[in-house]
Amino acid sequence: MTSLHPAEATRLLVEVPERGGSVVVSTVVGDNQFTGNRIALIVIENEKPELRGSLILESGTDSAIQLMKDILENPHSSDGLHKLTVADQSLEIYIEIRRPVQELVVVGAGHIAQPLAHLGALLGFQVTVIDDRPEFATQERFPSADKVIRADFSDPFRDTPLHTRSHVLLVTRGHKYDYACLIRALQMDPPPAYIGMIGSRRRVRATYVQLLEEGIAHALLDRIHAPVGLDIGAETPEEIAVAVAAELIMVRRGGTGVSLKGVERIVERFFKEDK
After folding, report:
1. Nearby residues of 121 by Cβ (< 8 Å), 6 or more positions away
2. Is residue 132 scored above 90 in pLDDT?
């Protein structure tokens, strides 16, 4: 097997995530006879992992493949250099990883939805906006969205199937619509990666009471991020969108949501006042 061509590697890094798969591309770097050799590991859900290309090493290819698998299994891994020992020779390989494109489904096309859709696109989500009002569900109102769909809130996801890469934000014009869409989202199997619902503490509590009265399992309540977003004192639609976007990043990256100033304590650790 020959080394993967650079153009083919680039194509895989773009196309595989759009198909819902993950791809890891390893390239030998540095000053050695193997420089520029590439191999790709492609994994698409429910399909057998596929290899493309070869590092054309006398030995050590298996070690490279195992390293690629380990990186793929680590949800926090990112692009970077890694060392590989081949026949007592130390090589460096540069690994690029791309995971399935994440989707943001904004249910409701009001004043909060507009900055939410824009920020979602900036964060790399494929954004879909859903509303039942034709004058609101327009591409002109949501130029950053990949899709703008008019749908009845009684069956909001008919043309937008939810899956494990879906992040759902319920920001409709009324509680009854949010609730109808929430029920639908909670019934999805497998569940979406994230379900967020806007609302006050009183409104969210009333929602939970209603869910339990209708027989929704208590464990499912933990799937709901409500009130949605991080506590940054947000008031305007744009500020609320930032708070929600911050929570989406926290969920995706595994952050804590606390202030970095309090985590690092730079002044306390390095600039103590002399007494």
Report:
1. 127, 144, 145, 146
2. yes
Q: Assign 3-class secondary structure to 63-128.
A: HHHHHHHHHHHCCCCCCEEEEEEECCEEEEEEEEEECCCCEEEEECCCCCHHHHHHHHHHCCCEEE
Determine the 3-state secondary structure of 148 from DSSP: strand
Least Cα distance to 196 among 141, 252, 123 occurs for 252
**Domain range 103-253, CATH architecture:** 3-Layer(aba) Sandwich (3.40)
Q: How far apart are CA 54 and CA 51, in angstroms?
A: 8
Query: What tokens appear for 129 in the block?
Result: 């906006």
Structure tokens at 106: 């904004």
Does the pLDDT value for residue 275 go beyond 80? no
Question: Which helix (H) or strand (E) is 177 found in, with range?
Answer: helix 175-186
Closest CA to 168 of 215, 127, 207, 109: 127
pTM for the model: 0.80
Report the alpha-carbon distance of residue 52 to residue 27 in Å, rounded.
12
Pairing state of beta strands 194-197 and 166-170?
parallel
Q: Where in the chain is the domain with CATH 3.40.50.720?
A: 103-253
Contact 33, 15 (CB under 8 A): no
| Average pLDDT of span 126-137 | 96
Distance CA 221, CA 208 (A): 7
Q: What is the distance of C-alpha 102 from the center of its chain?
A: 4
